[in-house]
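Next up, a specimen:

>
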Amino acid sequence: MAKIVNKEQKRKEIALASKELFLQKGFKGLTVLEVANQANIGKGTIYEYFKNKEDIIFEIMMILQVQHNILKKEKLLLATTTKQRVKIFLDFYYSNEEMELREIYKEYLSIALTNPNTYIRDIRSVYFKNYFSWFKAILQQGVDEGEILSSSLDLAKGIFVMGDGFLVSNCSTIDIIDIQKDMDSYIDAIFELIEVKK
């Protein structure tokens, strides 16, 4: 009798088996054959589970994001102010705990910027909507609690996307050396403008 394979579980196993290779070699430096060898399967088997190499990196990112979301929710529960929550939400861009996901995310950004096809844009849009909704809810909570001005919500998208801007600049210039310090200063300045003065 043939063994029944859980395709979703097998997909995750293949992706996780290749995670270290992606971190070591990067997307462009890694071949599908190397991924197959790392997962102890044939090269053709990869295509039973993934459309292409990009699809593998998306799966790794999704797996790591589940862990990221759990950690983020735990940290957010400890925060007592909206400013702290915003900083915790955005610490993905520099936190040591987030290093693996951030490295995979940089590969993903590279793919999205150099090959912006419909499939990649659709995946990016889902991520963007989910995380932006979460971020906006943090600001809404601050408004509801009377901590920040309601007009703060008009700044939500700009504050949210600035993290990617800092990350790209940190990776591509010599001008953003201490990303945590620069992001914290930016957030502190924003909160000087949006906090309700008491």
Summary: The mean pLDDT is 90.
